[in-house]
Automatic annotation (TrEMBL):
Keyword Cytoplasm assigned: yes
Protein's name according to its UniProt entry: BAR domain-containing protein
Pfam families: BAR (PF03114)
Organism whose genome encodes this protein: Fusarium oxysporum (Fusarium vascular wilt)
BAR domain span: 1-65
Length: 89
């Protein structure tokens, strides 16, 4: 058991600094790619939402811009949650 511990300890002592050194060439570019993907997703979603808005009437667009539409959607969702679909006979 002691030999196994010493072997693993030696291996960790050797490999952990190497792993930490890989942080810059591996993890930093990966994180940067994640941020760029999120930016691309948000830009695409914003663009699609802008395209959809042109089909909405002016009143609905105004409600959306003022944040009232979100409240109305939440109200309708709450009404749906409160529905009883397990009727009793």
């Amino acid at each position: 058991a002691k030999a196994a511990y010493e072997q693993l300890n030696e291996q960790l002592s050797t490999e952990l600094p190497q792993l930490i050194d890989l942080r810059v060439p591996y993890l930093d570019p990966t994180f940067e790619a994640l941020v760029k993907i999120q930016l691309r997703f948000c830009a695409e979603a914003y663009s699609r939402m802008a395209q959809v808005q042109q089909y909405l009437d002016a009143d609905t667009r105004d409600q959306y811009a003022e944040g009232q539409l979100d409240a109305r959607v939440e109200q309708v969702l709450q009404e749906i949650r409160e529905l009883s679909i397990s009727g009793t006979v």
